[in-house]
Every structure is written in structure tokens, then in C-alpha cells.
């Protein structure tokens, strides 16, 4: 019952900060949608970001995680907030390696055998988070769970499941849409 209350409170917070918009939208994939989740509204609103962090942090098994990962850009403030709440070290995953400085795709310490839980903003097919998972696994880390704020329910869960990764959505698209 507490999970349902948390979900309802999060939906209300997302709507209150205007992160959920209804109308006709073209997504990055080129598809059209009758709703859009502008997660940048949520991550720039401290009340909503704290709510997301509190709910996500409560779902993490602290004994099985030693890195909180976030994929640039949307996952970075979310993972940072969860890292602060749980006191688990933060790991940021760049979309591309830097061509200067120390280079690389990771910001933060990562060691072979580390258990990383990824925090994602919105999942659709799961493509960008799967790329990060493969990168982390190639390095020798373990990734078996992704927490996402909103799952658009367009294949991410199945695609992640096929890679032995559980998708743990705080809110599903069907939850957002039934409220309208």
C-alpha cells in the first residue's frame, strides 16, 4: 500500500512541477506521443527531485550495491541525489569518451567486480541504458537493476530482461495516463 501512495505522490509532484505534459509531441525517436515527460522540470525542482530520490533510495538493497550510476545527461542529477541519500559512491557514464584530459567514459571510481545500480530518467526501449550496461559489464562490473523514474512501457522492460537486468520503474506510463 505504501508503494501505491508513493507512486500517487510522485505522479502529483511530476504534474505539479509541469514535468508531465499532454498534447501532441514528437519524441527523439521520431515517434509521436500524446504525452511528454520533461524530466528536466522534475530534476530542477528540489521538492520533486527529493521525492524521486527518497523513493528510489528506499528500493535499493544497500548490501548489494556499491556504486550508483547515472547516464549523462538526465540520469546525472537523479543518480547524484540518490548517491547523497544512500551515501553510496556516484559513478557517471558519459555518452562518448572525452578527447582531452584523462578521457574515458566514466566519472568516478569503478573497479572490476563493482555492483552498480543505474538510475535513469525515462525509459522507452532502453537503448541508451543498455549501452551503459554493456560498457560497465565490459569493464567487469555487475549491473542487474535499473531504476527509472518513468517507464513509457515501449519495450525497455523486455529488452532489459533479455540482458538479465530488472527494470524498476517508479511510475509507468499507464499510471500517468489513467490519471488524466
TrEMBL record:
Q: In which pathway does it act?
A: Pyrimidine metabolism; UMP biosynthesis via de novo pathway; UMP from orotate: step 1/2
What HAMAP family does the database record attribute to this sequence?
Answer: PyrE (MF_01208)
Instruction: For this UniProt record, give its keywords in alphabetical order, as a comma-separated list.
Output: Glycosyltransferase, Magnesium, Pyrimidine biosynthesis, Transferase
EC code: 2.4.2.10
Q: This protein is called what?
A: Orotate phosphoribosyltransferase
Biological source species: Methanohalophilus mahii (strain ATCC 35705 / DSM 5219 / SLP)
Which amino acids does the record list as binding orotate?
A: 124, 152
Look up the domain of life of the source. Answer: Archaea
Q: Which gene encodes it?
A: pyrE
